[in-house]
Amino acid sequence: MIKFVSVDRVRPGVTLARDVYGVDTFTGRIVMLKAGQTLTMAHITKLMGLDLQGIYINEKRVAREIVSDATKRDLINIFDEYHAHIDTASLGLYTEKIEEANAVLASFVDTILERDELHFDIENFDFHENLRYNHALSIAVVCIAIAKELRMSKGDITELAFAAILHDIGDSGVPRELLDKPAKLTEDEFDIVKTHTTLGYNALLSSSAVSDHIREGVLSHHERYDGSGYPKGLHGKAIPFFARIIAVADVYSALTSARPYRSAYQVAEAIEYIMGNAGRQFDSGVVKAFLKVVSPYPIGSCVKLSSGEKAVVAEQHPENPLRPVIFLIDDPTAMIDLYNDKCFYNVVITELIEE
């Protein structure tokens, strides 16, 4: 895809996506670099002498590695261990590896918290071919990012990550054919599926190494701020804090993942759904933090507008990442603020484009 970047962020080895033309302010000589040219340090030095906002480069759109393959494997092994030792009759949880799990999760949290920037574009984590693993681990990543934005302590973030990974542990007590049903559940079937929150909570009761915060997160992650959730129909701040964070991450991950009965939502569509339900289904404070760390349109990316024009994202609005500051590819001199400029209220971004 084509990406617009400021000259000071250009590194040797990238290729130009569009021609660059200008007059060197130091020598007065005309500088012309052609599209497709691989930039060296000498080229970049020349570019620094030009009066440019930035340049267009070619960038492969690849999933950013959020955690290492080794950490992914460790997390998956722990996740597998818990599910393998669930007794569906008593739902007694195998807890011998709780300490090991905590150590791996602490490393997992460190890896994410050490990132200079947590404003990442979450599309496909590819942790594992098993959808259940991808869902649990992607939720943990989003929860950690939200928690960092909320300035939670590292200890609390680690516990939150544990709760996120185990949030659907009670699924092991629900008939597989209901969980995998490729059609809408009947009311009676949905009532059975809803028991997974209580089943998971009960499973975790057998371990003194699992905190009340983790258990409450597992029990209450389907509660909704307006009281419409389950299993207890809790309202507002009566819903445990961990559960309020997991609820946002859970819905986001679920919407952006394909299901047998529907295709995956676009990232922007999922964000719009969560924004629209702030204060209703979700805690507004948690949603506000979520919007600061999940971006459908990263800075420098090319987008298509409802007007048919193409533009480049120049700046984010944390209050509404769906309406960033942009400039038109055909007229890069004019900045357009889709969030604040009333003249452009009827213009929306329709897609992220890769040209």
Walkthrough of the structure:
- It is a single chain.
- The chain is α+β, with helices and mostly antiparallel strands and 355 residues long.
- It folds into three domains: 2-58, Molybdopterin biosynthesis moea protein, domain 2, CATH 3.90.105; 69-293, Hypothetical protein af1432 (Orthogonal Bundle), CATH 1.10.3210.10; 302-352.
- It contains twelve helices and ten strands.
- The chain has helices spanning 41-48, 69-84, 98-113, 131-149, 154-165, 176-179, 187-193, 196-205, 212-220, 241-255, 267-276, 284-293, and strands spanning 2-5, 15-16, 20-23, 30-33, 55-58, 302-305, 310-315, 325-328, 331-337, 349-352.
- A hairpin with a 2-residue loop joins strand 8 (325-328) and strand 9.
- Helix 4 runs antiparallel to helix 5 (154-165) and helix 5 (154-165) packs across helix 9 (212-220).
- The chain starts with a strand and ends with a strand.
